[in-house]
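re: ur question from the group chat, yeah i did fold both. here u go
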Amino acid sequence: MFNGLQCNMSTMALLSNAESRSICSENPTGAKSGGARELPPVDENGNPAGVAREVGQGWKVHPSDSIPAGATHTLADIEGPGCIQQIWMTPTGNYRYSILRIHYDDQENPSVECPIGDFFASAYTSFDVFAPINSLAVCVNPGNAFNCYWPMPFRKRIRITLENINPHGEPMTVFYQINYALNDVPEDAAYFHAQFRRANPLKQGDVYTLLDGVKGQGHYAGTYMAWQLNNNGWWGEGEIKFYMDGDTDPALSDGKEVAGSTGFPTICGTGTEDYFCGSYNFENKATKQYQEYSTAYAGVPHIVRPDGVYNANTRFSMYRWHITDPIRFKEDLKVTIQALGWRSGGRYLPLQDDIASVAYWYQALPTAPFPQLPDADGLEVI
């Protein structure tokens, strides 16, 4: 019988013995019959207080949680086996100061560590700035409703937390819903991972590293990039490169570093806009402007344009999901992308832009330690 964990249109008619569960502030454990049990708070006289004081239990008593600055809130702590099927949330506060982490099977190292906005492909949005995304893996809907459809199987346990690192002491509020199913996980199911990185600015002549240090078997599933330009002119000539299963062996390049790595990649792109499934500079030829787009597998949903006063730099928010073309590796993986523009005389110009990224992939455990996440100043969009 169908296990009911990883669902799509082709499995909609299939019966399953999986148990559907959901976690939110109204049922923080996901327990059967565990929702909407909280009572309204009482005042100093013992009378019901709060917005549900007149309607009582079961009437939206506890729909959200507040996370003080410096605190970490556990969104979910679930005993397996099972699979996260969808996450919806809408947070307040600075999205770069809200850090999402996911731990599997009591591992010490997180398998997901990422600012919340970047995880949902929305680094340059805020509570007051909305950019819609319509894709298979991530949707962002009006009100900045963040939705994730990456399947996240787990065997023993999954723990999902949100940390508020706001350096100014500001709390955040989060409404959320985590939908999952409990059932045996197939032996060949890998674990979902996501890692954030940033270079601000990228050093002269350096190649930006999206991912490195991955060991074991798995497949690369997607890329999100938040890219701020620090030069005039076209900026997206750089190639993305996937080094897998020994491609970085120095012997392949006679011990030399070539374009940011020893060895040579098995998969090499032809340009930044090409990798994000666009072409010819993302330009709308009629308007002579960059053109936003959002599709099932790739998009540039948000472009921040200079306003001539305080918004001085053009910024691009870009995603590419490898849902139908995952990049499979058996032993190791490294992913880089060049920041490359033009200078006088028809020559390439290595750029020094502000670049942040999230790499998404699946692999067998254990998870290698991630690079240390930048502090609040190192994360801030400025």
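okk and heres the other one u asked abt
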Amino acid sequence: MRRVELLKRVRDEAEVEASLKAVNRIVQAFCRVVQDETLQNGRCQVSGLGVFSLKQRAARSTRDFKTGEKREVPAKRVVRFRPEAAFAAMADKAAG
């Protein structure tokens, strides 16, 4: 789904008569709030959707498949998303 399609769908679902610019500002604000909350507190729970959280990945060694050379991957923080049970069940039902 492209961004314009998302904005139109959000506008239609909300049943509001707003411009796509206004809907875009709302979607961007939502994304910023989720990002800020996750980065500041390490976790952001959106009811009906799921939980965004920060996890620490340890440093590790890997091997370059082409050359066989060992490489070190540094430790880093990654964002993880865990869908709410009802959302995950909807996805499972749609798949099968």
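fwiw on the second one: The longest strand covers residues 50-57. Residues 20-41 form the longest helix (22 residues). idk if thats what u expected
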